[in-house]
Specification:
Number of helices: 9
Number of strands: 23
Structural class: alpha/beta
CATH superfamily of the largest domain: P-loop containing nucleotide triphosphate hydrolases
Strand order of the largest sheet: 8-7-9-10-6-11-12-13-14
Bound molecules: zinc ion
Amino acid sequence: MAKESLLQYVCSECGHVESKWNGRCPECGAWNSFVEEKAVPKAKGSSAVSPVMDDSVRKLSDIPIEKSMRISSGMEELDRVLGGGVMRPSSVLVGGEPGIGKSTIMIQMLSHLSSSADVLYVSGEESPSQVRMRADRLGLDSSHISVFCDTRLEALSEAIERVQPGYIVIDSLQTLYSASLPSLAGSPNQVRACCMELSLLSKKIGAAVFFVGHVTKDGNIAGPKIVEHMVDTVLYFEGAESGLRLLRASKNRFGSVDEIGLFIMDSDGLHGVKDPASAFISRRTGNEIPSGIAFTPVIEGSRAFIVEIQALVVPAKGSLQRIYSDRIDSARVSRVAAILERHAGLMLSDQDIYVNVGGGMKLSEVSIELALAIALYSSRMDIPVPMQLAAFGELSLAGEVRPVSFAARRMKALSDMGFTRALTTDSKDGFHVVYDDVHDIKQAIVSAFKARKY
Ligand SMILES: [Zn+2]
């Protein structure tokens, strides 16, 4: 029986398993993401990743309540996305592209936490002296940070058992490997086994463990997605222009997932953004903004931000219209363009459309549709949107403007940021913002570009 050589193919993006190699993953749609792995035999009895648990049956009331505690990471913005601080014990995945600041934020956090507990920084990518240099460059007190530079899971587990740190950072999960598995470091089996083992171990000793996971295009290295189900909290770092960084929770057992953390990357590390409401707006001088720009208030968790939607409409280069939009779903851009064409008589189907969001925030709220339409109109007609005017509302396929949730909070954010006029429907009074109650896209355009030829 050739059980040893049983091969399987695992998608390094999502962990989907197939018995044959596929060019494209049927589960997540990624191309060339399958890697060959020896199937790990389902262990009977003991397994390298079997949970450390007492399997006797007991009365629920006899089970001691696990003590958990929450402590500040030293960074308000990080605390916010974690749901109010670092939970202990817990396991957290911190994903993002290489170089975006994951190691930086982790070492900043450890430096703060090291004043209250033993902390361990596990580096599989940098030598101890490189880690030290990074901490020094950030001006951090590293005297209480222990560092462990070995990528063997067994050695690491042994060290953790011995030191019993309160907080552990694994940088990165993809560099670890267990000798008990035949596959290479970074393969789906290894990444999952190491994550599982260390999560269980940290629960056992009551520690919080943070796994740094690189999001890469390299199909040979498993992405952080494949371990999302194993951890309590999943955070992703998104980068943007001008050093702005967004930290977003996509899963959180201990808090809400709609909060975002905003940071600025400086030479001395990541700092929380002081004035978040305006972080996404570029400061302009003069009394006109360029055409193709419209402002809209968006709600993220407990906060409101004003964002700048930029549109550029140019005659199509090919016979087919193309839409380039990374921050707003292209299907939505296409739909709003069709609504403008049908209900406002604005010819767009022979045009290429480029859409961007200032500051790089990804927008998925329906409330941005009216502002997107205004930006497209402004670019196509080359008429700037008046200063201090913002818009929010959903557009129906019939061209109607629909009210959206949190209208009062959006109006307040506009008022706070010095906007004086808002285009929307069914809004709230009581702010220093006049609002034009617009019921359809045609009315909105007439209202926005008043005194201009429609
Ligand atoms: Zn997949």
